[in-house]
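User: Um, any thoughts?
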Amino acid sequence: MRNSWKVAKWEIKRNMKNKSFIISLIITPIIFMLFAFIPTLFNSEDEPTQVFILDDLDVYGQVEEMVTSSELNWELQQTDVTEAEMAAKAEAAAHTAYIALTEKALEEGEIPVYLNDKLEDSFLFEASIIETPLRQLQLERMNLSDQQLEIIGKGVSLKPIEHENTGDSSKTDGESAEEGDPFKHIVPGIAAGVVLFSIVITGMMIFTSASQEKKEKVAEIILSSVTPTDLMQGKIIGYFVLGITQVAVWLAFLLPIALWKIDFPILEYLFVPELALLLLIALAGYLLFAAIFVGMGATVEDMSSTSNFQGIVMMLPFLPFIFMGPILMDPSGLVAKVMTFIPVTTPGVLLIRLAMLEEWPWLEIIIAIVVLFVFIWLAMKAAGKIFKMGILMYGKNATPKEIWKWLWA
């Protein structure tokens, strides 16, 4: 194991001096920041809409209160412009609307709104808040009693009644509210997903590293000092450290910006006990794919001549995305459950499911993790055999038939 750590340190130092790795380390969070800030630059200074109200119904004060409480980007003003002149005035000024609150309009039940052509269509949806005081005025003119007005004003709504388990009366209201919080698992699930994605992408560099060492005849020199198993384990450990370093740098850039830009208690949801299990799944996913990548990398003579077989293997981490639709639609459905127990899809599918499910299926989780770690052990053994034979094979890429023979050698 000591030699494996030496190889890991060598891989870390070598990549930390690699310009491509350093650039990707810095450029990626900068790109995320640009995506966060550029839309803000275009949308932060929206020009307010000039809204002129012709108020013959004496409801301007109520309209003004509703506009303020709804935080609409309006500049509200009263006007004495006649309805006949409103269309021409609205057309002459951009971001302008005229609303005629007249007795005739109230009787007919249609309030005329004169808009400038450049005004967004969403304005009419915003202006629908005016309907409330006008409806109240109509009811008041019907000479209804206060009790009748209160009943009509309250309206009728549907109230969902959920079945409560009366046998478990020990739960407090706070505990019930916590269980119903959709962000309780989503935030740590996303965080673990980012960790898995980042270290797996970094782990793909193992494939390139092994292939490059074969091409440059470096593998023979290295193997004169360490065993193939030590070399393989060292690469897996080294690229894991590089992946975690990458995640740490990205979080150092992005987390403060997220806390500043998003009015949401991210840290409160992030650092929860469930995060430990989710990170364990992410780590297991890395170990699985790293074993596959390091084994396949040793079978490739040149990256430019990679066969379809090796290319398909490189796509295995992204397999859960193919089934994303059914999993998101029903995280407890048959497709989601089946994909949970297929080792190459277990990490991704399990993280998606646990992020979405309010109550975790612990029996399924335990079985899936046991199956995953057994498969990781088998993959490590298989990768060791493939790596031992493939790293010293020159002249051509290994075929699936040859790889199969190595596994049983």
